[in-house]
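Mods, move this if it's the wrong board.
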Amino acid sequence: MKTPIPNLRWWIAGLVFLSTVINYIDRQTLSVLSPLLTRELGLTNIQYGWISQAFLIPYTSMYIVAGLLLDRYGTKLVFGVAAAWWSLAAMLHAAVSSAFGFGAFRFLLGTAESANFVAAQKVAAEWFPPKDRGTLNGLVQAGSVTGAILTPPLVVWLAGSYGWRVAFLITGGIGLLWVVAWQLFYHLPENHPLITEQERALINDGQAAASSERPPWLQFFRYPQTWGLILARIISDPVWWFYLFWLPKYLTESRGLTNSQMGWVLWIPYLFSDVGSILGGWYSGKLIVRGQPVLSARKTVMLWSALLMPLGLLLVWQPPMPLTILLISLSLFAHSSWKTNLVTMTVDIFPRPVIGTVHGIVAMGGGIGGAIITPLAGYLIAWYSYTPLLVLMGVLHPLAYLCVRWLINSDSPSIAAGGTAAGGVAGLQEQPQ
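Not the wrong board. Structure tokens:
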């Protein structure tokens, strides 16, 4: 008999955290190397914008596909295959030297990477009661920014020591090791050989009494909650994509840092983002424990996060570098706190059998936002400057909050009919059309 592991769900959360770290290392390696590749290969800002777009188009469209596959074939299989796919695609970046080649392998990378975040929501629904889901999603968001923290010094060092092609090979290869660990360790709670009976009972008590029925995915577009979540992602996610893809170039091209200096200060904003992810998820969970309704607790944290974002408008005046880094750091802190709670709302509202599908639909909104901002940024920077983008980044979250307030209400038909308490698909289907 194998000895059960107490609090096994947090070990599962650790695996999801690691996958997200690896996911972001693989996608950000190119952005960290972009100043070097711009000089060595003669890539323009417009070309770089379209290379980034080549990632975002499949990344966005595959959210729904990943959700459908996860709900149909299970988290263990689909998550493992996706991680192996994106790891190999990341390694293949080492084989090309043109804008077209990078675009082709960015396309392959984007095809699989979105599955990580849909799978994380399936894990939240399968393994975590409502009070813990915000913390889990905080860890997932923290995984993304931890990857963003680790990538600049790691990639700058690898490229400086061994060349940029080796940097792609090593960062991409890490994910294949994770796939082995995932396949060996992950099972559903009901049949995991290492779970304690107490933890299994805790998870079962926190599960909604949901129907196993999975309605057609197009049906979810009928619910205002779905549209509230989608619009909030479309409006607010461009902030993250801008800072992820363009911050290294902003610091080197607009603010005069060398590539080495950029590599050693870029971790600071992402560290703040890490703290925001965990703190935002933890605090909404604390409000729930105190008796505040689940969605109300999420919205409280999101409101304060949105109100911090306009501080980023001060970047337009190009303050001294320490203040610049602080303002960017606060923006990413607030964004990650916001996104942790926004993502968790999907699991709060919809039942377990359809979490993959619904989260895929909602997360598609984030990809749409990124697909809009990434090429647009390339043209604005080439034709004007970073100023219009910095202004836009400071005002998007308050606008997104209005969508959340308008369309996602605790007394809305789907919540009243099933929601977090019952959460059944049947409850959703009973809404008046």
